[in-house]
Every structure is written in C-alpha cells, then in structure tokens.
Write a structure and sequence with these properties.
The complex is a heterodimer.
Chain A: H1 2-22, H2 24-28, E1 39-44, H3 48-62, E2 65-70, H4 74-81, E3 90-93, H5 96-104, E4 130-143, E5 168-171, H6 176-189, H7 191-204, E6 207-209, H8 212-220, E7 226-230, H9 231-238, E8 246-249, E9 262-269, H10 276-287, H11 289-297, E10 302-303, H12 330-344
Parallel strand pairs in A: 1-2, 1-3, 5-6, 5-7
Antiparallel strand pairs in A: 3-9, 4-7, 4-8, 4-9, 4-10
Chain B: H1 26-38, H2 46-71, H3 75-84, H4 86-117, H5 123-129, H6 138-149, H7 154-159, H8 169-194, H9 197-205, H10 210-239, H11 242-246, H12 252-259, H13 266-291, H14 314-345, H15 351-384, H16 388-402, H17 405-419, H18 428-450, H19 455-463, H20 468-497, H21 500-505, H22 513-523, H23 526-541, H24 544-550
The chains are: A alpha/beta, B mainly alpha.
Chain lengths: 351, 551
C-alpha cells in the first residue's frame, strides 16, 4: 500500500518538473549574455498557409526554431494584454493599420536596420518598428457563369443598392482587412455615411464569412454572384482545379471616384520580446528579394520591393487609381473603425 | 444536534493535544460546537478539507473574475449591449438549444425504446451503435457534413446541386442533434431497462392499447431520465464553439470567442455574464429534474419488462435505426476515412502531425493525472463527511464543468496575467482549463466507486490507531482507485477533444490535434484534418465501454 503512495508522490513530483520545464524561464537560463537565443516566437494574424513557407525557410537558413501561432486579429489584443510580460517577438499582420495602432500603444520597438530601407517609406513606420511587405487591393471578384461586369457594382457605395441584395459575400467586420478598409472609408466619408454603408451592406450581403477564403470558394462555386476580397484571393481561385470561372472588377475607377483601397501586410517588432536579435534577423530576411518573390508567386500578392517580378494576372499598382490615404493614418483611427463596425453590428455577424 | 461526547477525543483529528473541556474559553467552545453541528458530529480531516476547498477555489476564481469584470463594465455599456447585441444572440442561442433538444428527445427516446423494449432484429448491435456518435466530436461531424452537403461538396459534384443548405439554422440543428442525441438515448435506455413490467401489464389488462399505455404510463415514468438527458444536451449546445463556428452560426459562445478579438475583453466578459446566467437557469432546472428521479421499485415483484412485438412496424423501425446510424456514425466515418486516405497519399502524416499528437497526449495526460489527485479529497469528503459546506464545494466544482470553455479561458487569462505571469504562455493554462472543465467527470466516477466501500472500514482502521488521513490512503484509496482512474480516462479523452479553450490558451507553436482539425477544416484542407480527426475518434472509443456501463 505504501508503495502506491510513493508512486503518487513520484508522479506529482514529475508533474511539477514537467510544468516547470515548460515555462519560458527555463529557456532563458540557457541564453548567453548578448540576448542570443535559438528561438523565435511569431504571432500571425495572417493565415498559416501564407506564413508557414517563409517561417520554414527562415528556420532552415538560420537554424533558429520558430514557434508560430497563427490566428486572427485577436492577437492585437493578446499582444497588448501581454505588454508587461511579452511572449512574442514578431507580429505578422494583414494590415498596417493594426501595426501602427500597436506602435501608438507602445507595444512595438524601434528598428534601425538598414535592410528595411528597401521598402518605400510610405509602407513602413517612421521608427522602423513595423515594415510593410506586400500590398493587396480590395476588389470585387465575380462568377462569370452568373453575372458579367456590366451588372456589377462599379463603386463600393453601390453595395448599398437593394438590387444587389442577396447576391454577394463579405467578411465579418472583425476581419483585419475589413477593419482597415472601413477605417479608410471613414476617412473618406465620415462617421455617418460609413455607418450607413456598413448597416446596408450587412443587410444586403447573402453571406458574411469568417475570412476571404470562404468568399473565393463561395463565388467560385456560384453560391453568390460576387464578393469583396483582397486581390490575391481572386488570383488563387483562378488556380483552383474546379470552380475557377471567375473574374474581377476594380471599383471606384471613375474620374471623380475615390479609387481603390490598397493595404499592405507586414511585420512588427514586439517590444521586450524574448528573442529580439532573432526577430530583427527575421525582418531583414523578409525584405530580401527571394522572399519578396514568394509573396508574388506563392501568395499572389503585390511585392513592395521595387523591381520584383510578379505573376501575369496581378495588375501592378501603377495601372489603376488608388485611394490617396497614407496607411500610417489608419493606425490612430483603427480603434474608432472597430467601434463603428461594432455599433453597426457587423463584427459578430456570420451568415 | 446531539453530540456524541464519547468521541470528543477522537474527533480531535488534527493531533492537537486534547484540552480539558472546562478550560476552553467560551468563544472557542461555541466555535467548536458550531463546527460539530455543521458536520453532523463527524468533522472531516482538516487537510482533506483544505485540499478540497483549495480545489474549489481554483475552479471558481476565474469565473468570479469574469463576472466581476462583466458587472463592472458600467450601466451605459450594459444598456448599449442590451439594445444592440443581446436580444439577437439570445434568440439565436435559445432557439437553437430548444430545437436541438427537441430533436434529441425525439431521436433518443425512439431509439432507446426500439432497442430496449421491442423485438428489433439485431438489437444488441443497434444498442451499441446508437451510442457511437458520442465519440465523434461535433466539430468533426460538422466538417464531415460540410464535405458531403457543402456548397463545394460531394452531393453538388454528383448531382449538380445540394438539396440542403448546410450553412443554415437547420444545418446546424441537424449536426448538433445527430452528435448529441446519445446523451438522451443512453440515460433513457437505462431507465427503460429498469421499469417494472407490472405497471404496464396492469394498464394493458384494463384493455388499453399499447400505444395508450406508452403515452400514459411509460412516458411519465421516463420523464426524469429524458429530462436529465435533455439538460445535458442543452448545456452542450450552449457551450459548443467548434461545430457552430465551422457552420457559420453565431451563438453566445461563438460571440464571446469573437469578442475576445474585439477592442477589449470587457464586452466578452459582459456577454459571459449573460451566458453564465442562462447556464445557471439550466443547471437549476437539471437539479429540479434530478430531485424527482425516483425509480419505481415498489416492493414485491419486480420482473423484467416485457418485449413488445413490432409486427408490421418492423421495416419502419429498422429503417429508422438504420438512418440514424447512417447519419450519426457511418457517413461521417466514411468521409473521414476517404479524406484520410487522400491525406496519406499526400503526406499528411509527417513529423509535425506526430508533434501535434504528442502535444495532445502530454497536455491531456497531465490534466488526467492531476484530476485524479484533485478528485480524491473531494470524493472522500462528500462520501464520509456530508454537510452544507461539502455540497457547496460540490456545486462549485460542478458549475465550471457546465460553463462554456470560452468563459473558462477568459477567466484563466485574466487570472494568470495578473497573478501568475511566470506561468503565462506555458501549458499550465491549458492544464488548468481542462481541469476546470472536466474535473467533475473524475469526481463522479470516484463517487460511484466509493459508494461501494463501507465507511466501517475506515472506522475500523481509525479505531486501531490510524489517523483518518492514513486510513484514507491505505484503506479507501486502493479500493476506489479503479473507479477514479476510469474517471481520469474520461478527463483524458475530453481534454483531447477540447477545442475553444485550447485555441485561446495554447502557447505559440504548441498546437494540439483538436486545434489542427479546426484550423484545417476552416481552411478547407480536409485531407490534413481528417487523419487527426480519426485519431481523436479512436482515442475516444477507449473509455466508451465504461460510459455504456455507467448508464
């Protein structure tokens, strides 16, 4: 009988060791003085499939073990909550608004690396704490079997027209690209009009999804006639073995129209993260030409480093009218945009 | 209360030197009298009591934290939330709960009646098959149905269009019903098996037709059992996140999960307060139904219930059980096996797959082991020292079991971030969440086991000079251990399947099988999700026998 007791105490002991062994403190002990570590923690609001190839390549080239947490915009809050006890080194974001917001909230650290100078300063923070890596335009992709260009809305405001009711898909208002887009619209239209737009669009949408992947599938499969997506989702659907009879409309191209909202995905350097040196290495790595090519050929985005080739179907930025709003300006109003979306009730809606 | 003075010295259980009664100051005497009366003259060992209280405290603090955060949000925000968000969510949540519960009662009771009371061919097998959907986590079931009926699914590929709109209220109802009806089925089947045939025969001998007897005699007797099963189902629907999110539906639980990504956690906490209130109402209802469960075992003759010949209904009955098994077990499994084979060909089983498996096993294993250690004092206390305090502790422990995982995680994040930052970002958060959510499975199993161990044994050991602590360890524990270990197996399986808390609390780079299934399924990478789902199902089958015996 007493042997049972012994086994129990032994098990309890093992448990404490396991739990203790898993805590980050245990790793810190093995670091040497210069803050050199062999790990890197990446939080990604971007989907795993877009980030994983880059992370794997970095692991291979640098020998650093990368711990990846791929989730969604909820990570912005997680980072803020962890400010006193930072867990991550890098935040991979779908839009620069969230990055600038984090910078304003003092959750990012400045980065003086020369390598990030290759990115146009329009697309990075003044102190280098975040860097844009790839651009995406917000377009309508449509199913050619169901509709044609002339029957589609030509501007974003047209989505409020009741004749499109039940014909299109948008993402939930919590989606990062959507928040940034609303922030840009708000800068253009002001609070009242933007709120009206959200409410009517919410009413008119046939499907409201968690992310854009669902939209491209829904448009491809003919569940809806068209959907509002980032341009690379349209390019991806073209590559699908089935349901690929799709095309795209670039809205707001008229003489007096506002132009397309172009956003960038990028990375931020988290303040006080456990592996700062590796984080800087990783950011430098991402701005290299080779990785920029991965953006344009694997995830079909628009690279932000000059002179990188792109796939044939991706329109270069110079070929269409773009909204003239510096992305940095979205940061300060990012929260307001989220609040506006919540007031209009689009943030939780999924249908 | 009468105090057995004889035991004055024996009850002094924490080895203080006994003092003369007369010398005790009045206050102390009053205290000790109160203490004695609280425990009906059988106060527990202090260490066991403290351990139990500590466990209950661990379980309740995160929840309290959420409630405090939610209440403290200020009237203005509450009004705003009531005006905008809450009515719609309440309607979404309660309508789904009501329809699913009704559906599970219909399917569960019919199924139970057919396999227990009729001459259905092969009913031994059907009896087992009826319980099998229990091992398929609803989010896996949802994935399987989307593969079949979804807008880009099989049915569309074969027939050009899908007859069912899977991403709809009724789609969610179908999935939730098919994978939760076993709760009703199992409890009802057990209760049906215990009914006394005399009652039915008496009614039949009065010239009633069986249909009427069933409605007037059998159903009322089954009501408590059906009620207990239905409550389990409703609590489940209230707390499910995985299936509901994959099927693009929003209930309170899903809304809380999404709110955790909104601009602060306060609205999540506020929604949690409402959901906690709803859950408590359901729990109270359950407690009411449980109070009324009386097995009609009046003295005299108990005989096995009679078997009803189905006659011309046989084909219809067979069709029913076949259809239920097809939608609840065979179709989903076929889908998963098909996609797993595709996955195997495309290298879905790679090093990272095993890494996720190991992660799942390690976290669930730690949670299961700890649950044994934490459950023992609670079980012992409840069995040997019943009192108001004991039942309060029991209710506290049970309540976090009933609450959705998202609320539990919200509380855990609050608490760890504030007071235990050194453990934040480790698997300690996951283990805490699993224990909060599943400890009652271990305690209930332990209670069943300890009820068979006579308290005379401990008393005998104590009269021979063992301390209660020692007699618990040497006498009771070894006899109860098999039961508690069965409970630990349940905790293990539940932890393997757990999704919302795991999603919210996992450390970076620490994905489990459940998390991978959800991520891959939401992205449409079914060949990657299916092998993991099959593995989870396989592990869940292990304690199934024990569950079947329990009811």
């Amino acid at each position: 009988m007493t042997s049972k007791l012994k086994i129990f105490t032994f098990l309890a002991l093992i448990l404490t060791l396991v739990v203790a062994g898993c805590s980050p403190q245990a790793n810190d002990a093995s670091n040497d003085e210069e803050g050199e570590t062999d790990e890197l923690v990446v939080y990604s609001a971007r989907k795993e499939q877009f980030v994983k190839p880059l992370v794997d390549k970095f692991e291979e080239e640098s020998g650093v073990k990368v711990k990846l947490m791929a989730a969604d915009e909820a990570l912005v809050n997680k980072i803020l909550e962890e400010k006193n006890n930072p867990q991550a080194d890098i935040f991979f974001s779908n839009d620069t608004g969230a990055l600038e917001y984090l910078r304003i909230e003092d959750a990012l650290a400045p980065n003086d690396s020369d390598k990030i100078q290759v990115i146009d300063e329009k697309y990075r923070a003044d102190d280098g704490s975040w860097v844009g890596l790839s651009a995406r335009s917000r377009i309508f992709m449509y199913n050619k079997d169901l509709t044609s260009e002339k029957d589609l809305p030509q501007t974003l405001w047209d989505l409020t027209d009741s004749k499109y009711k039940g014909k299109f898909a948008i993402t939930r208002g919590g989606n990062g690209s959507m928040v940034a887009h609303v922030a840009a619209l708000r800068a253009e239209w002001g609070d009242e009009k933007t709120k009206e737009w959200i409410e009517k669009v919410k009413e008119n949408a046939a499907i409201i999804t968690e992310g854009h992947g669902d939209i491209r599938q829904a448009v491809g499969a003919g569940e809806v006639e068209f959907g509002l997506v980032n341009n690379y989702y349209f390019h991806q659907q073209l590559d699908e073995p089935k349901d690929n009879n799709v095309d795209a409309v670039y809205p707001d191209q008229g003489k007096d129209d506002m132009g397309i909202f172009v956003n960038a995905a990028g990375v931020g350097l988290i303040k006080g993260g456990p592996n700062q040196a590796n984080a800087k290495k990783f950011i430098d790595f991402l701005t290299e030409d080779e990785q920029q090519k991965i953006f344009s050929f694997e995830s079909k985005e628009i690279p932000l480093v000059e002179g990188i080739e792109t796939t044939s179907e991706a329109k270069p930025l110079s070929e269409y009218k773009v909204m003239d709003m510096p992305l940095k300006e979205i940061g300060p109003v990012w929260l307001d945009a989220k609040k506006l979306i919540e007031e209009a009730g689009l943030d939780l809606e999924v249908k | 209360m009468t105090e057995p003075t004889l035991n004055a010295e024996q009850t002094n259980q924490w080895n203080k030197p006994p003092q003369g009664q007369a010398r005790k100051p009045f206050l102390l005497r009053a205290m000790s009298r109160f203490w004695q009366s609280l425990w009906h003259g059988k106060p527990p060992n202090l260490l066991i009591l403290l351990l139990s209280m500590l466990t209950a405290l661990i379980m309740v603090i995160p929840i309290l934290y959420v409630v405090v955060q939610g209440w403290g949000a200020g009237t203005e925000r509450w009004i705003q939330l009531w005006d905008s968000r809450i009515p719609g969510l309440l309607w979404n949540t309660l309508s789904l709960t009501a329809v699913v519960t009704a559906g599970t009662i219909l399917i569960g009771v019919t199924f139970a009646f057919l396999v227990v009371r009729t001459d259905l061919p092969g009913r031994k097998w059907w009896r087992l098959i009826g319980a099998l959907p229990l091992v398929i986590p609803p989010y896996v079931g949802a994935m399987a149905y989307i593969i079949i009926f979804g807008p880009t699914g099989w049915v569309r590929d074969w027939f050009g269009s899908s007859p069912v709109q899977i991403y709809s209220f009724w789609g969610v109802v179908m999935v939730m019903t098919m994978f939760t009806y076993p709760y009703v089925y199992l409890i009802t089947a057990a209760s049906l098996g215990r009914l006394n045939a005399n009652l039915e025969e008496a009614a039949l001998s009065c010239g009633q037709r069986y249909r009427q007897v069933f409605l007037k005699v059998v159903l009322p007797l089954l009501r408590p059992a059906v009620g207990a099963g239905a409550i389990l189902v409703s609590l489940y629907v209230l707390s499910d996140f995985g299936a509901i999110s994959i099927m693009r539906y929003t209930t309170f639980t899903a809304a809380i999960y999404y709110q955790m990504g909104s601009f602060d956690r306060v609205s999540a906490a506020m929604l949690s307060v409402v959901l906690i209130a709803v859950t408590l109402i359901f729990l109270w209802m359950e407690w009411r139904t449980r109070k009324n469960i009386r097995y009609s075992q009046q003295g005299g003759t108990y005989r096995r219930p009679l078997t009803i010949p189905l006659g011309r209904w046989k084909p219809l009955a067979l069709a029913f059980v076949f259809l239920v098994s097809l939608t609840g077990v065979f179709l989903p499994l076929a889908v998963l096996i098909y996609w797993s084979l595709l996955g195997l060909q495309n290298g879905a089983i790679d090093a990272s797959f095993w890494e996720y498996t190991v992660n799942s096993l390690v976290v669930s294993g730690i949670a299961a082991l700890l649950s044994v250690i934490l459950a023992m004092p609670l079980v012992y206390l409840k069995a040997r020292n019943p009192s108001l305090l004991t039942s309060l502790l029991e209710k506290v422990v049970y309540s976090s079991y009933a609450l959705p995982g998202v609320i539990v995680s919200l509380g855990i994040v609050f608490v760890f971030n504030q007071y235990l930052p050194m453990f934040y970002g480790t698997i300690a958060l996951l283990v805490t969440a699993y224990i909060m959510r599943f400890l009652p499975q271990a305690t209930q199993a332990g209670e069943a086991a300890i009820s068979l161990v006579s308290p005379r044994l401990d008393e005998a050991a104590q009269s021979l000079g063992h301390s209660p602590w020692k007699s618990m360890l040497k006498i009771t524990l070894p006899m109860v251990l098999p039961g508690v270990l069965a409970g630990a197996a349940l905790v293990f399986v539940s932890s393997m399947k757990e999704l919302p808390a795991t999603l919210l609390l996992r450390p970076a780079g620490y994905d489990t099988l459940a998390v991978r299934i959800w991520i891959q399924a939401s992205e449409g990478f079914y060949h990657l999700a299916a092998p993991a789902a099959l593995l989870v199902i396989l592990v869940s089958i292990l304690p199934l026998r024990w569950i079947l015996n329990k009811y």
